[in-house]
Design goal:
Bound molecules: 2-acetamido-2-deoxy-beta-D-glucopyranose
Distance between the termini: 11 Å
CATH topology: Immunoglobulin-like
Strand content: 15-25%
Length: about 190
C-alpha cells in the first residue's frame, strides 16, 4: 500500500524512481516549468520549496526552454540583489540537475535578464544526513532577513531520522539518474496504478 501511495505521489508531481541510494530527484515547480511566476502564482517557488523535504543526496531538476532561460546557483548576497553576473554555477541546457551533496541553504535564480526580479528565484534547505538542519549562516540571515525567520521544522533540534520523516511516504522516490530513465519509470508507475 505504501509503495503504491508513493508511486501515486510520484506520478502526480512528475517524480522519479529509486535506485540504490534512495535519493530523490524533485522537479522544481512540479508541473510548472522553470520560468517567471505567472501573476496567479507569484510565490510558486517559495511554496514549492516548502512542499518538498529534501534530503542530503537528493537532486533538484529545472526544466525550461534553453533558448529562453537558464539556472544559476548564486551566493546569498547575489540572490538578494538579483545579481546574476557572477554565479557559483550556471546551467543552461534546459534540463538542469543540481545535486544536493552538501548540507546548508542553496540559492538559485534565472540567468535571463530581469527574471530574478520578477520572482524566478528559489532557495532550498538541505539537512545533514541525520535530518538536522544547519543554522543559517550570517550571510543567509543578512540576505534573507524576512525569509530566514522561516527556519525549517527540525532546525537545530532533534528531528526524526531520515527514514521516519513525516513526509517519507509522500516522498517522490527517484534516482538522481537520467531524466530519460525517470520518464520511463514514471510511465511504468502509471501502468501500476
Ligand atoms: C549531478 O549528478 C549527475 C549524476 O551523478 C551528474 O551527471 C551531473 O553532472 C551532476 N550535476 C551537477 C550540476 O554537477
Ligand atoms: C546530527 O548531526 C549533527 C552533526 O554531527 C549533530 O550536531 C546533531 O546533534 C545530530 N542530530 C541528531 C538529531 O542526531
Amino acid at each position: 500500500m505504501r509503495a503504491r501511495a508513493a508511486l501515486a505521489s510520484a506520478a502526480a508531481v512528475l517524480l522519479l524512481l529509486v535506485d540504490g541510494c534512495g535519493c530523490a530527484m524533485y522537479k522544481v515547480g512540479d508541473l510548472d516549468a522553470w520560468g517567471v511566476p505567472p501573476p496567479s502564482k507569484p510565490d510558486v517557488y517559495k511554496r514549492w520549496a516548502k512542499s518538498v523535504h529534501l534530503a542530503l543526496g537528493d537532486s533538484i531538476w529545472f526544466l525550461y526552454p534553453p533558448s529562453q532561460d537558464s539556472v544559476l546557483q548564486v551566493t546569498p548576497q547575489a540572490f538578494a540583489a538579483c545579481e546574476v553576473s557572477d554565479p557559483v554555477l550556471k546551467l543552461d541546457d534546459g534540463n538542469s540537475v543540481f545535486n544536493l551533496t552538501t548540507p546548508g541553504r542553496f540559492y538559485y535564480t534565472s540567468g535571463a535578464p530581469g527574471h530574478c526580479r520578477k520572482g524566478q528565484k528559489l532557495w532550498v534547505d538541505v539537512p545533514m544526513a541525520n535530518g538536522t538542519y544547519l543554522p543559517p549562516s550570517a550571510n543567509d540571515l543578512a540576505a534573507l532577513a524576512p525569509a530566514a525567520a522561516e527556519a525549517p521544522t527540525g532546525f537545530l533540534s532533534a528531528s526524526a531520522p531520515a527514514g521516519a520523516h513525516p513526509s517519507a511516504a509522500l516522498r517522490p522516490v527517484a534516482a538522481a539518474g537520467s531524466v530519460v530513465a525517470a520518464a520511463a519509470l514514471s510511465f511504468a508507475a502509471s501502468l501500476l496504478l
